[in-house]
């Protein structure tokens, strides 16, 4: 994980999965979820839905050894709970807003 590149991580099955908000990842997330500005606003208002958080994480996930399914990533988010996933979401949203 490289914080200088805007990366953060979430634990999935005992393995840290790096999340990198690259241009390609954010475009893919935006195509699925709609405007990133609206996504950030929903998050700030506490209206971000679980599937939206998982989708953002999914698109930003850096391929690692082994297979990571979107379902497994969703399960990992529910395992750590919203309190555990919130710092990861905050880091990604911070990078979306400020850029590199």
Report on the structure:
With 100 residues, the chain is mainly α. Strand 1 and strand 2 (15-19) form a beta hairpin. It is built from four helices and two strands. Helix 1 (23-33) runs antiparallel to helix 3 and helix 3 (50-60) packs across helix 4. A two-stranded antiparallel ribbon has the order 1-2. The protein starts with 7 loop residues before the first strand and ends with a helix. It has one domain (3-98).
Key structural traits:
100 residues; mainly alpha; two-stranded antiparallel sheet; 2 strands; globular; Gene transfer agent family protein; Phage_TAC_11
Largest sheet geometry: 2 strands, antiparallel
Number of helices: 4
Overall mean pLDDT: 89
- Read across the widest sheet, the strand sequence of neighbours is 1-2
Distance between the termini: 15 Å
Radius of gyration: 12 Å
Order of helices and strands: EEHHHH
Number of domains: 1
Low-confidence stretches: none
- The best one-word shape is globular
Number of extended strands: 2
Helix content: 55-70%
Provide the β-strand percentage band: 5-15%
């Amino acid at each position: 994980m490289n914080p200088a590149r805007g990366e953060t991580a979430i634990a999935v099955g005992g393995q840290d999965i790096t999340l990198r908000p690259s241009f390609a990842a954010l475009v893919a997330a935006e195509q699925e979820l709609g405007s990133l500005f609206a996504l950030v606003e929903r998050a700030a208002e506490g209206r971000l839905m679980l599937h939206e958080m998982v989708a953002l994480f999914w698109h930003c996930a850096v391929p690692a050894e082994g297979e990571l399914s979107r379902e497994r990533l969703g399960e990992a988010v529910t395992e750590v709970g919203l309190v555990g996933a919130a710092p990861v979401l905050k880091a990604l949203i911070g990078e979306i807003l400020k850029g590199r």
